[in-house]
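Lecture notes, unit on protein representations.

Consider one protein chain, 425 amino acids long.
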Amino acid sequence: MKKNLQKLNHCERILEIEVSPEEIYPIEEEVYQDIQRIAVLPGFRRGKAPLELVKKNYAKEAESEILKRSISKFLQEAIVSEDLVPIENPQVYEVNWEKGKPLSFKARFEVRPDFRLKPYKEMKIKKRKIEVKEEEIDKVLDGLKEKYAELVTVEGRSVKEGDFILCDYKSFVEKKVVEDRENVWLSLEEKMNVEGFAEKLYGANIGETKKFNLKIPPDVSDKEMAGKEVEIEVKIKEIKEKHFPELNDEFAKMVGNFNTLAELREGIRKDLFSLKEVQLRKDMEAQILDNLLNLNKFSVPVSLIERFKENYIKRLKEGLRKKGLGEEEIEKVKGEIEKKAEEYAERDVRIFFILEKIAEKENIKVSDEEVENHIRKLAEEWKEDFEKVKKSFIEKNLWEELRLELREERVLDFLLKNVQVIEEE
């Protein structure tokens, strides 16, 4: 067999292969013998016809199988001898063969990119100082006050901003009723409503019915009202307002395991600090990855980009569905989704190969036992049976995926400890 390997770029290869008739002969004999075992010819029982008669009567069928087996065998041998590992099945083309003559063909395929890793321990990243401001603690406390606020019925006054009202509610589009609900509670906080809705009810009294028209934005989820002029009718039946708890030691005891308001503030400070530590690590990791991408420029397998892209598209669409978008709306932004997915995909494929190369160089590995221990922790967090979770990971082919994720975490841990970190004031 003669072979010639062409390197088109970091990851694309073409193998040109030529095989002599002598090398193909054993495959021919093997094919005809396989056919002989099942051949049915006049005057002979199945599998008992002479080989020469089989060759004469089944030549056309045999040639197709001989060609298929020859390409498979010699392509595999060439790939192994060149120490190559195709990412996808090779594309075979320019096949030339006649019985008794040499076979020649080409195979194009992608392999893991072949690139020289640039020095990475010299890279510099910034580490900002973490601090928690008193205003941030106050903001959390405001949220807690909101959470523990009570709704109290009020009498002797009209509706005002921030109230909650019990009402009968009707809406009409072109005189047709599209909503008719009784005894519903509505929040009159402006952020909770279509712009202008709450103001129309300010000043109304219990027992009063307010009628008004409102232009509904085109992006609301209710298609029957989106972008239309809607006539609204609201009968006020009860008014409630929020009563917020006082910020004192009793409040601290109510919201958690704290004895004083000072202890609660300190607990919030620690929680915010921990959250900022997590974000700081993410920021530093992002700096490392950006540096690695800028240092290492190389082509990546198109087939892998497509695979990553498909996964991203599924995730982005699912995210939009969870936000309430319908299939028609998602279809309108299909081009934008695909563009964003392709950008993410190419970046992530390059990052994958760079971190893999660093892992090999620094001998960073994750054992089966470590993967299993991680799954055990996940099972505990999910409050599920460990063996059941483990079996699920294996059946869904997620075991190796988890190993790669854990290895990536370790590589980033290693880099965070070994690159040059500049502390910011």
